[in-house]
Predict the 3D structure of the following.
Amino acid sequence: MSVVITVAPTGPIASKEDNPHLPTQPEEIADAIARAHAAGAAVAHIHLRDAAHRPTADPAIARRTMDLIAERCPILVQLSTGVGLSVPFEERAALVELRPRMATLNPCTMSFGAGEFRNPPAQVRRLAARMRELGVKPELEIYDTGHLDACLRLRDEGLLDDEPLQFSIVLGVAGGMAATPDNLLTLVRRLPENAVWQVIAVGRRNLELTAIALALGGNARAGLEDTLHLRKGELSPGNLPLVERTVALARSLDLQIAGVEETTSLLGLGTVAA
C-alpha cells in the first residue's frame, strides 16, 4: 500500500517571528519544496506571500512560485484558494486560472480563530464549476461535519467528478472540529467509499493524528503550515524535518511512499486543459 505525502511549507497565519525558518518568498518556498520532494513529498500545497510577507493571491507571485518549483523538481502543485482571511473570495478564486494540477475548494463560510473565512455558497458553486471546466482537481477541505455534506451536494449537482473525490480533514482550527481521534473517525466513516483523504492536524496533536490517519488508510500532510514545532518546546528548523518525520512514520507502518507518477494515478489527476 502506498501513501501520498504532501508538504505544506507556509500557510496563511504564521510569520517569521513565530518561526524564522518559515519560507515566505517564491525562492524560499521553491527551495523548501525541492528539499521536501527529495525526501518523499509528491504534492506541494502552496500559500503565497507578498514582499511584506502578507498573504496574497497576486497571480504574478503565484506564477513565479510555480515556475521556480517546476525548475527544481517535478512535484505536483496544489494551490490554496484559501490564501488568507483578509483576501477577497474573487481574488482567491482567480488563482485556478493558472491551471495548477490541484487547488483547494473550501465549501463553507466559518469562524476561523478570531476572524471569518468567507466562502459564500453561490461563489463556491461557480468556483467548483470553473475548476471542473479547467480540469483542476479540487482538494476539498472540510473543517466540520456539515462541510462534508456541502461537498456531497456539490457532487450531486454535477459540480464535482466522483473519480475519486479528494478530501482534507482539517482538525484543530478554532471554529472547526477539535483535533481528536473521535472527530477524525466520525468524518472518515462518512466519506464516500471511493474517496481519497488526508488529515491536516493543526498544532500540538499533529503527529498523533497523522499516525492514526495513516493507520486508517489515509494520506498525510507535513510542514510548517500545520505545526511550527518538531516536538514540544522545539521549533522545527524548516519543513524538511517535518516531512522526514512523516515519511519515517509511514515506513514504520510498512507503507510505501508514492512518487509523483503513482500519486497522479491515486488522486485521479487528469490533464489540465490548455
